[in-house]
Specification:
Layout (H helix, E strand, L loop, with lengths): L2 H12 L32 E4 L3 H13 L7 E5 L8 E6 L2 E8 L2 H7 L5 E4 L6 H9 L6 E4 L6 H14 L2 E3 L5 E4 L3 E2 L7 H6 L8 E5 L2 H14 L3 E6 L10 H10 L5 E7 L4 H11 L6 E6 L27 H11 L10 H14 L18 H7 L13 E2 L6 E2 L2 E2 H6 L4 H10 L5 H13 L8 H11 L4 H9 L9 H14 L4 H10 L19 H13 L4 H13 L10 H15 L5 H10 L1 H23 L28
């Protein structure tokens, strides 16, 4: 095959386009240098992944595993608009991970300060905004932009921001890069089989940089055949204005002792390769560099300008041609083959020369860790790796004894944990202070029952007398718990907290609820009045005054009560309102939760859970009481029903 046409074929494939497109050169940005000294990545590098993509994430984790990393390289995922506390599942070898998901780059970076890389899989429409936010995060050092088609103006602004903040950008329009045996970006290197075949699971001695992601993957295979393999490889991307250039990365490789030789694959268009020419002429680059610029076939086209897939791969000025660049590199001292066909052999001979001269001792091969097969492959070979259906973060029953949030059941028994402390572990995943767990227990006691006439007890009694079992009788009563029975605790807690934190006066709060047509939950009682207070409210308030560090929300609720009592004597702070306000005081005052976490617990219904747990004691008691007394089927007395039946409707007259 004629080498010129082989070169044309590789250029078209590397550009990700089988057709050659015509375009207009938009010029170059001069003086851009975002290179950093030394490695971009190591075996401890962790990344934040923007815009969830299952395959590249799993490929990164598979690379981590076969490379023998101790920890996965993905710390978090950012999905704009995601709810707090979410996660995405993936495998790290045989271990299934729950990778946390955040709604913003800032939140993810704050939660994972050791993550230094953002891998941005946003579309070209939003890649600019998300990358700009990442560049402003102090803990993120390298930003990788995968998207093709990012507007050139946006890329220039990102490059300027990167220079100002001392960050490095890889891309746009890149597959990423890889530090062999340490860290891999997304789909770089392809499948795990190709990773192992290219010896990317362990470090070699060659630094490689290219514009093309497709040709990078092919060149990793070439390097595995001709040398002891890759040390670091970067695909800067095929756009006319890459965030970091071929020259930037060659300059880094020149300073890295692990890199013994450099291989560079450029392409026609632009002037990036001339930066490497200057490095050679100035003596800053002393290591052998084997280089080839693809696109020598462009001269065979009868046109002044031809674009080969990549935005930056286009023929134009004479000095941007592949021939001119190859010639300049060769004159400056780079090792340049006569054609792409001879590229592989020149890499081999250059490497062999280093070894023969004693300038390099080949890296020994390392056996990669065996990776479990995925479902389809495993079924054929009798191996399985199946995703779990449930994630549990509060308990574990797989060891010798159950644990509650890591606390063995033996410790719970030996140290005599109270029911409040067990609730603290299983509900809040922490140990609340003693005064907090005692408060929970007081609530359980005081709210356990309120007589047989309330709706929950009534339903449990009716179900028990209908012959239903204890579980059904309990559930019958529990189903009445909601906005009008028990559920007022949640609403009261949220309303008092929001109003108090918002510095809304009690008067404005009450009148505002009235204007909305909403009840003031936690205020009002059918029986109790200002002259006949609820003893339970009094006892809980006294306990809080003695033991809580502060009762900010209870005091606010009491001020609301002072105002509502001016309207009617039964508009007192009831047990729901008291428990709700004190529950917020407990969570806020224990020093273990942020304000957002407190609100999340309220919105999740934790307070309602306390009422359900407490009232279950009484509901079970009523069901057992009825069964013990062998009470017959209940039928409501007719004299307690107002029959307001309407008149017999008249049948409409039909027309013939």
């Amino acid at each position: 095959v004629d080498g010129r046409w082989l070169d044309a074929l590789f250029l078209a494939i590397g550009s990700g386009c089988g057709n050659w497109l015509f375009g207009i050169d938009s010029g170059l940005m001069e003086g851009m240098d975002t290179a950093t000294n030394g490695d971009l990545f190591n075996r401890s590098t962790q990344a934040i992944f923007f815009n969830y993509k299952a395959q590249p994430i799993q490929r990164m984790l598979d690379f981590d595993y076969v490379s023998g990393r101790d920890k996965p390289s993905i710390a978090a995922i950012v999905t704009p608009g995601a709810s707090a506390g979410g996660f995405q599942k993936a495998f790290f070898g045989r271990t299934e991970l729950a990778i946390p998901v955040y709604s913003s780059i800032h939140t993810a970076a704050a939660a994972h300060p050791l993550a230094s890389v953002l891998i941005n899989f946003a579309s070209y429409r939003s890649a600019y905004e998300s990358s700009l936010l990442a560049l402003e995060e102090p803990t993120l050092r390298t930003i990788v932009i995968i998207a093709e088609g990012v507007p050139e103006r946006d890329t220039k602004l990102l490059i300027a921001t990167a220079q100002r903040t001392g960050k490095i950008i890889i891309g746009p329009a890149t597959v990423g890069g890889v530090t062999a045996g340490a860290f891999k970006i997304g789909d770089t290197g392809g499948t795990i089989e190709n990773i192992i075949a290219c010896k990317l699971h362990r470090p070699g001695s060659v630094g490689f940089v290219s514009k093309s992601g497709g040709l990078s993957n092919e060149m990793y295979n070439v390097l595995a055949r001709t040398t002891d393999g890759l040390y670091e490889g970067i695909a800067v991307g095929g756009d006319g204005y890459p965030g970091s250039t071929l020259t930037d990365h060659v300059k880094r490789f020149a300073k890295m002792p692990q890199v013994k030789m450099i291989v560079m694959l450029g392409e026609l268009g632009g002037s990036d390769e001339y930066g490497v020419v200057e490095l050679l002429k100035s003596g800053e680059l002393q290591k052998p560099i084997v280089s080839w610029v693809t696109g020598t076939c462009a001269k065979w086209f009868n046109t002044s300008e031809v674009q080969f897939g990549h935005a930056g791969a286009k023929s134009g000025a004479a000095d941007e041609s592949a021939e001119a660049k190859n010639s300049a590199l060769k004159d400056a001292g780079a090792l340049v083959p006569e054609s792409f066909q001879a590229f592989e052999e020149l890499i081999r001979s250059t490497y062999d020369s280093l070894v023969e001269k004693g300038l390099h001792v080949p890296v020994l091969d390392v056996e990669p860790q065996s990776l479990p097969k995925d479902l389809k492959t495993a079924m054929k070979k009798g191996e399985l790796r199946v995703a779990t259906n449930i994630v549990c973060t509060i308990s574990d029953d797989r060891g010798e004894e159950p644990t509650y949030v890591g606390v063995p059941i033996s410790e719970i028994i030996e140290q005599k944990y109270s029911i409040g402390e067990v609730i603290s572990l299983l509900w809040f995943k922490t140990l609340l202070p003693k005064w907090g767990t005692e408060f929970l227990e007081l609530v359980l006691v005081t709210a356990a029952d309120h007589g047989p006439c309330v709706s929950g007890a009534h339903n449990s009694i009716v179900a028990a007398r209908a012959g239903r079992d204890l579980g059904a009788s309990l559930c019958s009563g529990l189903l009445t718990i909601g906005p009008r029975f028990g559920g007022a605790v949640d609403a009261a807690a949220v309303n008092f907290k929001v109003a108090c934190d918002g510095n809304i006066t009690p008067v404005d709060f009450v009148e505002g609820m009235k204007k909305k047509g909403q009840r003031v939950e936690g205020i009002g009682h059918r029986i109790k009045t200002a002259e006949n207070r609820d003893k339970r409210v009094q006892l809980l308030s006294e306990y809080a005054a003695k033991n809580f560090p502060k009762t900010k929300y209870l005091e606010y609720a009491q001020k609301v009560e002072n105002y509502t009592l001016q309207k009617a004597s039964n508009l007192v702070l009831n047990i729901d309102g008291c428990i709700g306000a004190l529950f917020v005081d407990m969570l806020s005052g224990c020093g273990q939760f942020s304000d957002a976490e407190v609100m999340e617990m309220l919105e999740l219904g934790a307070l309602n859970g306390v009422f359900i747990l407490s009232r279950s004691i009484g509901l079970i008691g009523h069901a057992l009481d009825q069964k013990r007394m062998k009470q017959p089927l209940y039928r409501h007395p007719t004299d307690d029903v107002l029959y307001a039946e309407s008149e017999h409707p008249k049948r409409p007259r039909t027309q013939n």
